[in-house]
């Protein structure tokens, strides 16, 4: 359930019987022909779909993350590392103060990995509270399903092209884009990254059937739900 559809008294009542919650982590960055909010849309949706049957509240998505390499693409917004870590720490502090003791950070953006490291450090200072950092798209079962569907899967390619990340009246190319040289890409500044990527897709076809995508989504939701259920430390 969405925390935005609860009041403080309902949260207080919930915490008398459960101490779990989910915080989706996203990003605002280029995704070729898809929404700039792909990572936020997907992390929040998988969290909501997974948590709903369990009655676990899902906080609003943190829609900005670490994406300095895409800053030459208009619409991309990247936080500084120190800013991001401070924000995540403040969120965890606030959740702890409220009474949450089992917290999932449901991540939708690879660049947000420092939040996982911060969570480990934060837990050392807060005995009795567990933070689970879950990057939903590359968890074992979900990634296995992606690879089984099409091993050429990457940023802004078909693997992020769900019915809810597409834009109305925007058509993706039908060709398969060659995979970019990731080692070379990592050597470039933002201008060089844009020059190498062109439209922003790292490589692969731009879209697969809804049947393929919904099959992957079902696995992702099930895998995420299992982690929310536990066991927890």
UniProtKB/TrEMBL annotation:
Fetch the Gene3D superfamilies from UniProt: Creatininase
Listed cofactors: Zn(2+)
Q: Which residues form a coiled coil?
A: none
- Gene Ontology BP terms: riboflavin biosynthetic process
- SUPFAM superfamilies the UniProt entry points to: Creatininase
State the UniProt keywords alphabetically: Hydrolase, Metal-binding, Zinc
Molecular function as annotated in GO = hydrolase activity, acting on carbon-nitrogen (but not peptide) bonds, in linear amides; metal ion binding
Q: Which domain of life is it from?
A: Bacteria
Q: Which Pfam families match?
A: Creatininase
Per the similarity annotation, which family is this?
Belongs to the creatininase superfamily.
Output the PANTHER family linked to this UniProt entry. 2-AMINO-5-FORMYLAMINO-6-RIBOSYLAMINOPYRIMIDIN-4(3H)-ONE 5'-MONOPHOSPHATE DEFORMYLASE, 3-DEHYDRO-SCYLLO-INOSOSE HYDROLASE
Q: What is this protein called?
A: Creatininase family protein
Organism equals Acidisoma cellulosilyticum
